[in-house]
Specification:
heterodimer; A: 118 residues; mainly beta; three-stranded mixed sheet; 1 helix; B: mainly beta; 2 domains; four-stranded mixed sheet; four-stranded antiparallel sheet; 2 helices; 15 strands
Chain lengths: 118, 242
């Protein structure tokens, strides 16, 4: 079965540490609310370190279930016969001129995100 | 295809307290709610780490959207930032969170007047309650009020008492201890819970996220596989703070 690759990018230029990251869907563990406007996604650590990797997303107030719904739909999307990865959230609005725009901004309720890796 | 399991804590959308003469007496010159009578909020907090401590210093405050007071009568013992420092009967005002504390699910409001010290009085944001005032607390999503797990993160389901069952998941943070969700249900329903979870994950009824148990907003939403089991409570214990 084709693997879905889930892409996150913050508001940087995709040229700094943790500006962007991509995880195979199979590495996703879960997501938890942390405030009324934040939802944190966790993935199995890429480096097999003690702590998992996470992406903390700033979302529309109280829209946790909506964002979870959209995440599940995207993560389970059929990737057969495509060569694209799946954009969960891309809030980069200042891509370098030599990079083309990504075709999707992802989940509209996400307005900012912070990537933490171990 | 992965199934995603969504859970949310049980609690009301809001909760109100009518202040009694005893409350007023007990709370004179101290944070109101911190004496022998108190305002206890149902369903907030409840997430503890392995050391038994509440996760996050603001774990409970994060779950409160607003605290309002409907005044029972004219009251001039009100913080200067609230309605110009005085309220009239039936006026409803919002208490700034600077004057609100929540600890062990108990709400406290700093008074605006009296002989309390700086820790027990706030002349700017505080509010000295009078008899028959109505305090209303409105809740919101906060720290660890809802969670979604990939079904593949489920490690096991164990009976913990005749009326409760534990779902054990891989830790979100991977710090060495499982995350657990404890479901309260009618006695003797463990096998039905297991069958229901199995049907959710391995059946053909879902294609993505499944609301397994959602007790938020005072309305209990259950997946149909878990209906009729008397589910009336859910606690989530995560391994570590976020």
């Amino acid at each position: 079965m084709a693997e879905n690759y889930l892409f996150f990018a913050d508001g940087g230029d995709n040229n700094q540490d943790k500006d962007a990251i991509m995880f195979p869907r199979s590495r996703f563990i879960g997501a938890v609310s942390t405030t009324v406007t934040t939802l944190e996604f966790f993935f199995k650590d890429r480096a097999n370190a003690a702590g998992n990797d996470d992406v903390s997303c700033t979302i529309t107030s109280g829209a946790h279930k909506t964002v979870c719904d959209k995440f599940a739909e995207l993560a389970n999307g059929n990737r057969n016969n495509t060569n694209n990865f799946t954009v969960i959230a891309d809030v980069n609005d200042d891509l370098p001129s030599n990079e083309g725009a990504i075709s999707s901004a992802g989940i509209s309720e996400v307005s900012a995100l912070t990537i933490t890796t171990s | 295809m992965e199934t995603y399991l969504y859970f949310s804590k049980f609690r009301p959308a809001s909760q109100s307290f009518t202040i009694t003469a005893t409350n007023v007496s007990n709370w004179a010159n101290v944070d109101q709610g911190s004496a022998t009578s108190f305002m206890e909020i149902t369903g907030i907090g409840g997430s503890y780490n392995t050391a038994g401590a509440m996760i996050g210093t603001s774990a409970e405050e994060s779950e409160i959207a607003s605290v309002t007071v409907k005044s029972a009568g004219t009251n001039s013992n009100v913080g200067s930032n609230i309605s110009g420092g005085a309220t009239v009967a039936d006026e409803t005002v919002t208490i700034p969170m600077a004057a609100v504390d929540v600890e062990n699910s108990r709400l406290r409001i700093e008074p605006a007047s009296g002989s309390g010290d700086a820790d027990n009085k706030d002349t700017s944001d505080g509010y000295t309650l009078i008899e028959d005032d109505v305090v209303t607390v409105t809740l919101q999503q906060g720290l660890e009020t809802s969670v979604m797990y990939a079904a593949s993160a489920l490690k096991g389901i164990e009976a913990s008492a005749t009326g409760s069952t534990i779902l054990r998941f891989n830790s979100l943070k991977n710090d060495g201890t499982d995350d657990i969700i404890t479901i309260a249900h009618d006695n003797g329903k463990y096998e039905d819970i297991v069958n229901g979870i199995n049907a959710i994950i391995n059946g053909n009824n879902y294609n993505g996220i499944v609301t397994v148990i959602d007790g938020s907003g005072g309305n209990t939403v259950l997946s149909k596989e878990l209906e009729g089991l008397g589910i009336d409570g859910l606690t989530m214990v995560f391994e570590s703070s976020y």
